[in-house]
# Entry
Amino acid sequence: MPCILQLTRRFDSRPIPPASPGVRLRHFAGPGDVEIWLDLRRRSFARQKLGVRDWDAGDFAREFLHKDWWHSEAMWFAEIQRFPFQSHTAVGTVTLARRGDARNAKPVVHWLAVLPGYRRRGIGRLLMATLEAAVWDAGGRQVWLETHAQWAEAVRLYRALGYRPAGE
Ligand SMILES: CC(C)(COP(=O)(O)OP(=O)(O)OC[C@H]1O[C@@H](n2cnc3c(N)ncnc32)[C@H](O)[C@@H]1OP(=O)(O)O)[C@@H](O)C(=O)NCCC(=O)NCCS
# Structure
């Protein structure tokens, strides 16, 4: 039986993204990033049994592009350079969504994912702190998210960052 956890964290100072040598961040940069995001989703959530099929560009448009909160700076990609002089490759992503009516819309962590081969290197922490700093800079002092109790890595990450059940 899936169990959804609603977690939140309040901030009393601006979150500082940790130094992450070798990792660079960028925003969504156009249609070419749709396939990159879909591939990250497919590979990062492979063990989570999210549904019966992979998503396509139409799903991406419904999930992001058609939302009233969407803008290209709401989505980040973490990239690394596998070998010197080669181009950078996306290994993680997160999106800052908004939930609720426009005046009281809550900042929400949406689709945090890091490729299996790049985990436990601080990339999830970097993406979260980057999103949180953007919320702070926009005047927000609290971030919300939903996850599944069975997604142990995500639950551990959020707890380590100070997220607690939203009802507390
Ligand atoms: C959750 C996820 C994004 C974490 O990414 P990550 O880059 O490995 O996270 P970090 O390396 O920044 O880890 C930060 C902290 O989270 C905790 N953590 C993360 N993964 C953990 C694991 N497998 N076991 C124990 N603790 C873990 C640790 O406290 C870790 O700090 P530490 O390495 O200094 O001990 C990644 O595991 C993932 O993509 N999982 C599948 C998709 C998913 O569940 N997304 C969240 C949907 S709500």
